[in-house]
Write a structure and sequence with these properties.
heterodimer; A: mainly alpha; 2 strands; 73% helix; disordered N terminus; B: mainly alpha; globular
């Protein structure tokens, strides 16, 4: 809006490429049999929800300049087990305890990164091993099967959409408000774009980092809750490929891995875009391999586009 | 000033970790009750062969300040191509895998060098794409390798403890050590990892080095994948993230840092041997599997504690306060110092 002419020229090119891509996708999708149906739209949203919730949390961490976490799958698994083994205390208690566990585990990593400036990748690999090892230890490697099933309500649908979709939308709005309406949220952008300057300006860099990671932890735990409810039991491999799927959604949404740029709404868009493309390919009869391949190319295109639009002014 | 302790982490870390793990390996009969056999060493070296080339591949990119996540995708693709193309001739299969790995690495390196883009998101995208490609080639199923002569050959016992596979892996480390140690390439890699702008100004051809680097990492990863699927007599389309994570752990134990600028192939060798021996110790002593994970976590926690500027800052301040003769200077992180000093202006 207030962009100088040079910038607006650059952003016009930056906008044109994704728009053309979306137009091609819309054309392909519109001509795909069974794509334009309510059931299919529901299926897309439902498949977005689990990864999407974690991706929203990962967005805050990436904006705040901590890069990525490689421990999301393990954390989701352990929170899912926690959720299932606390079923007898009622749903509200179980969800609360689970979310608090996720927040505690992940905020602790945020504290080491924020206050000690530990490398996020090394630290989260360590955390992934610690959490994964402890999970196997305490569960004995056997699936957790709850005797009480308080979670069934989480698998129900409301107005035709699974509960998880509403939670995804709620988390997105909450993340958006946090990023734009709170001091800590706005400072995440500054910490992410220039940590030294943020510290020099008197920002509580450590605390802001911890807040971003705590939010992330809550999101991972919510994904864990829904994974557990959906599968009705939890094994040590429940988290699956969550770690990279979430990062892929954040990157496709246009958040820069170097921090300081991005938004929760865009991540939601990224997650939905991945789901839509997978859905179109599936309906057109392409194999899982082709779907994954196209997802990789999409992430690559998004990463290159974001990098070009971020550095064009400086070149 | 900031690099005061430990003095030379790139030499100290791999030496200490390998020594500790070797002592533990030698002591493992105390727990298992049976004496060590050459076969145990052979097994450890087989584990090293499985991990080593990936560790070398990711390690050299880390020395140069990059992080090549795609190696585990190239590893899977290389294994699949070797099995598909090498049914008649094993060498042809390896050639196909290595050619694909080199081509993918070169393309990736060219993109990263030309756009000066952070390598992690790019290689993450490539990893996902390569995983998809491998799935598409194999239909998502593992593919059996029918040539059992080759399978027997790559894993045959040589001199009691070696196999052609582990010797080949060792040879790659030796080649890397010679090339990086006796040409200016080693110094240049560390230079572009430490301060890229300064090395560009100093006349280092950064772009060419980055392209070459990713070409080599792709080649090594594909070779590792090809050898592994010959050994298993089958190729797995999705090895998961575990091989990558273990390779990164080996590199970190080998004295490489994610910030770049330091590390040597011999350090990487020590790191890879440490990880392989550790896994073998857990196997010999029949400890539960999760023990390995907890051990890796503990080792990485040590690395975090040594490498993070925070704790090192604490230590430096502590030493400074001792040197100045100030008793009981309260340890505080950078943040806390700033937080307290800026409180008046915010309230």
């Amino acid at each position: 809006m207030t962009a100088v002419p040079v910038r607006s020229g650059a952003s016009a090119v930056g906008l044109a490429v994704p728009l053309v891509g979306l137009a091609v996708l819309a054309g392909l999708a519109g001509t795909t049999d069974r794509f334009l149906s309510l059931d299919n739209a529901r299926a897309i949203l439902a498949s977005t929800a689990f990864v999407g919730i974690t991706a929203i949390g990962a967005t805050l961490v990436m904006i705040a300049g901590s890069g990525v976490s490689l421990a999301a799958s393990q954390t989701a698994t352990v929170t899912a087990m926690f959720f299932l083994s606390t079923q007898q205390y009622g749903l509200v208690t179980a969800v609360t305890v689970t979310v608090l566990t996720g927040v505690a585990l992940t905020a602790l990593q945020g504290a080491v990164i924020g206050y000690w400036h530990a490398n996020p990748i090394v630290l989260t690999i360590a955390a992934g091993f610690a959490v994964g090892g402890a999970t196997t230890w305490f569960s004995g490697g056997t699936p957790v099967n709850p005797k009480v099933r308080e979670f069934d309500v989480l698998n129900s649908t409301l107005l035709g959409l699974p509960v998880a979709v509403y939670v995804l939308l709620g988390v997105t709005v909450l993340a958006h408000l946090t990023l734009h309406r709170t001091t800590a949220g706005r400072q995440m952008y500054l910490v992410g774009s220039n940590r030294t300057a943020a510290r020099a300006a008197g920002m509580l860099v450590g605390r802001i980092t911890v807040i971003a990671w705590a939010f992330f932890g809550a999101c991972i735990a919510l994904t864990g809750v829904f994974l557990a409810s959906f599968n009705t039991s939890a094994t040590v491999t429940l988290g699956g490929t969550l770690t990279l799927d979430a990062i892929a959604a954040v990157l496709v949404g246009g958040t820069a891995i170097t921090g300081g740029r991005g938004s929760a709404m865009q991540t939601l868009g990224g997650a939905v875009l991945i789901a839509v493309i997978s859905d179109v390919l599936l309906l057109r009869g392409y194999s899982t391999g082709v779907q994954i391949l196209v997802k990789g190319i999409l992430v690559l295109a998004a990463v290159v586009a974001v990098h070009l639009s971020a550095t064009r002014g400086r070149r | 000033m900031t690099r005061r302790w430990p003095a030379r982490p790139d030499h100290l870390m791999p030496a200490v970790s390998l020594l500790v793990v070797m002592v533990a390996f030698a002591c493992s009969p105390l727990l298992s009750g049976t004496s060590l056999q050459p076969f145990d060493v052979y097994n450890a070296l087989q584990g090293f062969a499985q991990l080593g080339l990936l560790a070398l591949a990711i390690g050299i990119t880390m020395i140069a300040g990059e992080f090549d996540l795609s190696i585990v995708g190239t590893y899977a693709l290389g294994g699949m191509l070797a099995v598909s193309a090498g049914a008649g001739s094993a060498a042809l299969g390896v050639l196909a895998a290595v050619a694909a790995g080199a081509a993918i690495g070169a393309a990736q390196g060219a993109l990263i060098a030309r756009l000066r883009i952070p390598s992690m998101p790019v290689t993450l995208a490539t990893y996902i794409a390569l995983l998809g490609l491998t799935y598409a080639i194999s239909g998502g199923l593992s593919k059996t390798y029918p040539n059992s002569d080759v399978t027997l050959w790559v894993d045959q016992t040589l001199a009691g403890i070696f196999s052609p596979r582990s010797l080949l892996t060792l040879a790659m480390f030796v080649i890397a050590a010679v090339v990086l140690g006796f040409t200016k390439l080693g110094r240049e890699l560390r230079a572009i990892g430490g301060d890229r702008r300064a090395s560009r100004v100093a006349g280092v051809s950064v772009g060419g080095l980055v392209v070459g680097l990713f070409t080599v990492s792709g080649t090594l990863a594909a070779l590792g994948g090809a050898l592994l699927s010959y050994s298993y007599a089958s190729a797995n389309p999705d090895p998961g993230l575990q091989p990558l994570i273990l390779a990164a752990v080996a590199a970190l134990l080998g004295g490489v840092s994610l910030a770049g600028g330091r590390g040597t192939p011999l350090g990487l060798l020590a790191g890879a041997l440490s990880v392989a021996l550790l896994a073998q110790i857990v196997a010999i002593t029949a400890l539960p599997d999760f023990t390995t994970q907890l051990l890796y976590a503990a080792l990485l926690a040590v690395i975090v504690a040594i490498e993070s500027p925070g704790p090192r800052g604490l230590l430096d301040r502590f030493r400074a306060s001792r040197a100045d003769g100030l008793p009981g200077f309260p340890p505080a992180s950078d943040d806390e110092l700033h937080e307290t000093s800026h409180q008046p202006s915010t309230s």
